[in-house]
Specification:
It is a single chain. The chain is α/β, with parallel strands linked by helices. It has helices at about 55-65, 80-85, 95-100, 115-125, 140-155; strands spanning about 1-5, 10-15, 20-25, 35, 45-50, 70-75, 105-110, 130-135, 160. The strands form 2 sheets. The protein has a 5-stranded parallel β-sheet with strand order 6-5-7-8-9, sandwiched between helices. A 4-stranded antiparallel β-sheet has the order 3-2-1-4, with no helix packed on it. Strand 7 (about 105-110), helix 4 and strand 8 form a beta-alpha-beta unit. The two termini are about 15 Å apart.
Amino acid sequence: MRCILDKCILWCYTETSKLRCVFHRKNPDPQDRVKESSEENAMKKNVVVVGYGGMGGWHTESLLESDVCNLLGVYDILEERREAARSKGIFAYDSLEAVLEDPRVDLITIAVPNDAHKEIAIRALNAGKNVISEKPVTTSCADLQEMIDAANRAGKIFSVHQNRRWDE
């Protein structure tokens, strides 16, 4: 996996461009220049996937192969999905509160139905977690603005994932 980092954007992608993670920061330092990270200086980020259905499963599988992220676990409201994760050797949190209270969590990827993105994102940001949301990010512009405001207040990264897994 290759990573290019500057204070504004972190792009990570595989040789086949099947996985890209993009993190945006507000007010980047104009003196910062793009640097290519090496395995020696890359710091793995601890990630939890909230929602272990179709896209949550895809994110989880990608994270298990990542050399820049460490999958801490998953959370899903359905016990059978948590059990499915456990059967694959993946840690499953019993509640969203447990995810938010875990100090090891750097980043939460939200892969639940669209109408639940806002509540989870704001709670995660308020708990000091960075957030990547599946698209569509929310169901209204007003909800999106609340999410952006929460990220700015918390000083955390909030981004929307655009799936590029079929790019050549």
